[in-house]
Amino acid sequence: MEGFNTLLESHNDKYTIDYSDFSPQTESDIFIPPLGMTCGEFPEPVEEHQILANPIQDYVSTSPVSHAHRLFGPFKEKFNRQYKSEKEHEERENYFIHSQRFVHSTNRAGLSFSVGINNFADWTKAEKARMRGVLPPRKKDDRN
């Protein structure tokens, strides 16, 4: 068996497992959860759980598409996002990824509250400020 250092993506480790006892039959009771424990569906999306398990991997990954990037598709579908151009798509995806990292960073801090992704995750700071009632700075010509 080979293991890979996913944190720093540095090297492969090789492990040898020696079995002292083996049986080809499987006892059916091993699939019964312990008393008081319930089983459920694996939560979606998987990429988000991979980010939570190893957050630094999203920064050092050699893959051109990070786990955070893969979460953008479901976000666009959920909030019915369509962008005018590829440039706007890339900009919005970048805002979304920064929002995603903020959410995970805040939730790892062990605070008394948690935050999550909402429909504003792909908005600019200026768009969010306007939503809160902040007016954009006026141009010099508009002050008269």
UniProtKB/TrEMBL annotation:
Task: List each coiled-coil range.
Answer: none
User: Where does the Cathepsin propeptide inhibitor domain lie?
Assistant: 72-128
The organism's superkingdom is given as Eukaryota
SMART domains reported in the protein's UniProt record: Inhibitor_I29
Show the InterPro entries listed in the entry: Papain-like_cys_pep_sf, Prot_inhib_I29
Q: Where are the transmembrane segments?
A: none
Gene3D superfamilies per the record?
A: 1.10.287.2250
**Name the record gives this protein:** Cathepsin propeptide inhibitor domain-containing protein
